[in-house]
Amino acid sequence: QLPPGLYKKVLVILHDSVLPYMNEPTLMMDFLTVAYGIGGAISLLALNGLFILIHQHNLEYPDFYKKLYSLLDPSIYHVKYRARFFHLTDLFLSSSHLPAYLVAAFIKRLARLALTAPPEALLMILPFICNLFRRHPACRVLLHRPAGPADMSEDPYVMEEEEPSESRALQSSLWEIQSLQNHYHPDVAKAAAVLNQSLSEMEDDISGLLELSAAELFDREVKKKAVDVPLEFEPVRGLFGKKNDIFAEHFSLD
């Protein structure tokens, strides 16, 4: 048993300062799998080490994606390690051999959580979702359902279901993205509207968006050049638009 603070300090440096220098990195399998099961920030930090063991040392983790799916909660868009988590999640969901129901569950859960996410997180997650559609065309039924959304009296997706295969994500639709197309931030609304069009084959580069902060987003808006908006196109000729009406004799616009 380790204190949470020590767990975090160890896991932050484990993947690049410890594992590369071990003769048998597989000795860390039990430690990392236990840390991955703790939850919260500790599970997020354990992903780096687990990725190395899975990718380079053939670690088999049967419930890995189920646990990764369970890590998606409302706090995921606000945590300190958000960039690291989504970078690794992008890698884990890059395989074209993943079943459609699994990817659809991730897309639907990310979209549902996006309804309460800050703008800087939305500008990252919307291209992230677009990339998942490009890799897994079978999931595009969430965007263009042949029967249409009118046949749905309610969303069949079960948000509380921990098992992705039982969440019924493929039977749902992405009404959450349509809601974000009316977002108060114009950049978010524009990014959400991309899904109304046919997606290009080239994936979006989200590396520059992972670290985007609210302060950077604010500075970007402040530095935009203001456009002069004309408030009156025709000079006023009288109180009601007529030059010589009776009101002009008794009332003045000065």
TrEMBL record:
InterPro entries: CCAAT-binding_factor, Noc4. GO terms for cellular component: Noc4p-Nop14p complex; small-subunit processome. Residues 43-192 form the CCAAT-binding factor domain. Pfam families: CBF (PF03914). GO terms for biological process: ribosome biogenesis. The chain crosses the membrane at residues 31-54, 85-107. Keywords: Membrane, Transmembrane, Transmembrane helix. Belongs to the CBF/MAK21 family. PANTHER family: NUCLEOLAR COMPLEX PROTEIN 4 (PTHR12455), NUCLEOLAR COMPLEX PROTEIN 4 HOMOLOG (PTHR12455:SF0). This is NOC4L protein. It comes from Calcarius ornatus (Chestnut-collared longspur).
